[in-house]
């Protein structure tokens, strides 16, 4: 059997994105990155999406890869909250549908939901699929802007966000054959320059508006959100084809870095007066720890089959 060649440019794009996530949490700055960082991961999910033979298989596989790591990496925070927070605050935390132990791990839960929903969407006739995706996404995008009895309509378990990001998965699925080739042609360079121009113009016209996918808060209209995110996604993937492959290992470990770095941030933030130093320290320790876990402790990395497939 021929060994499938790994796509390094996609790993590099993931690596760039996860380092920007760490920098954002270390308060380095926005620089317009929140417009595309998390949407990029959903887009890449679509690029590599393959429909499994059954929904049961999908659930078991993604429980191993996403849900169980979500629980495992929340346990330290659970212990911390249990012993440091007042009992009432601890109870309220469980009742808040957007409160979780390990903050960045919301992405794992959201990604699990995306796999389940997209499995169902792929069963629908092709001519109706795009319309349904846009309909669900608009509901997810705008639902939280409405209030009921003084409370915004936030669905539990990040379902608002899950519905909102489905178009990125769909577009990644549609553009797979154009995204995966790693040729460094003049056409690729011209496209990257055009995307960079559009990205800069977008920043100039609307400013560096941060989007918050945790709270499903975008501070812009739906078409602007989709356009800005897609331009940023395609720009980063295009640029990644011209970046040395040494950064690919960071992208390959991006899920682990996501759930690990917040612990190093909490431990180190009191020792650094400048966010750049904090970012460098947190990134280095997170990458090294993620590499060690990936290599030696599969039980923590999402690779171990707790549920047999």
UniProtKB/TrEMBL annotation:
The keyword Transferase applies. Keywords: Acyltransferase, Membrane, Transferase, Transmembrane, Transmembrane helix. It comes from the Bacteria. GO terms for molecular function: acyltransferase activity, transferring groups other than amino-acyl groups. Coiled coil: none annotated. Residues 7-293 form the Acyltransferase domain. The keyword Aminoacyl-tRNA synthetase does not apply. Pfam families: Acyl_transf_3 (PF01757). The chain crosses the membrane at residues 12-30, 36-54, 66-83, 103-121, 128-149, 155-172, 193-215, 271-293. InterPro entries: Acyl_transf_3_dom, Nod_factor_acetyltransferase. This is Acyltransferase. It comes from Segatella salivae F0493.
